[in-house]
Specification:
- Helices cover 40% and strands 19% of the residues.
- By secondary structure, it is of the alpha/beta class.
- It folds into 3 domains: 2-10 and 190-280, Cobalt-precorrin-4 Transmethylase, domain 1; 13-94, Rossmann fold (3-Layer(aba) Sandwich), CATH 3.40.50.11270; 96-187, 4-hydroxy-3-methylbut-2-enyl diphosphate reductase, catalytic domain (Cobalt-precorrin-4 Transmethylase, domain 1), CATH 3.40.1010.20.
- The strands form 3 sheets. A 4-stranded parallel sheet has the order 1-12-10-11, with helices on both faces. Strands 3-2-4-5 form a 4-stranded parallel sheet, with helices on both faces. It has a 4-stranded parallel sheet with strand order 7-6-8-9, sandwiched between helices.
Length: 281
């Protein structure tokens, strides 16, 4: 049984940067918190806890020390609140997310009705919404658009981990309904590359394994993309979840991983699959 890893898979620059900043803060300071999980990967978050980096649900939960803003970004009022509380703030917001926030703020300031293509309760989308002044439409699909739009001048931004097909669907639905449409494709390049590589690989293998947090939007979308072209797709977080029965009759197994999945997690899953192949021999 041969294992093939997607050309683009695993941890991206924004996540790597966030983990580096949090790790450096842990080494330099005695009391470090992240505002919510730093990234959507339970194992990586636990590894940070083991280094003394705790997870806080609000600024009020942090008595003192350093507060790391997670990669998904936050409402700018939260950063201001943390500063007022005397906390040292380290902003680990992914640069691609910062770009989406900036475009949303600019569109709102210029009088456009802002449409955010993304998941309403996702922390990244909540942060983008706040930068738009709290007044924007959040949609995942074209059918989520209201019958009556708030303006004939509409500006669109998109959650960085959404698929290009979702963005295209919403934009196509808006085209005939507005007099002016501005679109910022804020899907990050790492996400686009991982989605394309996963789709291509899933079409050519017998079984596809997707590695990453189940609470990770970009990892979940990789699994969705793979399932659209391959019926034997399994989403796992760790090597312990790999089951021998998944590979019955399989000659080639594909592996991909979300942008918040560290290399060691991917390597562990690959080793578990290869061990099953060795047992068969």
């Amino acid at each position: 049984m041969r294992v093939v890893v997607a050309q683009h898979a695993g941890i991206c620059y924004g996540v790597e940067r966030a983990l580096k900043l949090a790790g450096e803060a842990a080494d330099a300071s005695g009391q470090v918190h992240t505002l919510g999980p730093l990234i959507h990967n339970p194992q990586a978050v636990q590894a940070l806890r083991d280094r003394g980096v705790e997870v806080a649900t609000s600024v009020e939960d942090v008595p003192a020390g350093t507060l790391v803003i997670r990669s998904h970004g936050v409402d700018p009022a939260v950063i201001e609140q943390a500063g007022t509380a005397g906390l040292t703030v380290i902003d680990a917001t992914c640069p691609f997310v910062s770009t989406a926030q900036r475009h949303a703020a600019d569109l709102a300031r210029e009088g456009y009705a802002v449409v955010i293509v993304g998941e309403a309760e996702h922390p990244e989308v909540e942060g983008i919404l706040a930068h738009a002044g709290g007044n924007a439409l959040i949609v995942q699909r074209a059918e989520d658009l209201p019958e009556r739009l708030p303006s004939k001048r509409v500006g669109v931004v998109v959650q960085t981990t959404q698929s290009s097909s979702r963005l295209h669907e919403v934009v196509s639905a808006l085209l005939g309904r507005v007099s002016e449409l501005r679109v910022f494709n804020t899907i990050c390049s790492a996400t686009a590359k991982r989605q394309k590589a996963a789709d291509e690989l899933a079409r050519t293998v017998d079984v596809m394994i997707v590695v990453g947090g189940r609470n990770s939007g970009n990892t979940t979308r990789l699994a969705e993309i793979c399932r659209a072209v391959n019926t034997r797709v399994h989403h796992v977080e760790t090597a312990d979840e790999v089951e021998a029965s998944w590979f019955d009759g399989a000659d080639v197994v594909g592996v991909t991983a979300g942008a918040s999945t560290p290399d060691e997690q991917i390597a562990g899953v690959i080793a578990a699959i290869e061990a099953l192949g060795a047992d068969e021999r």
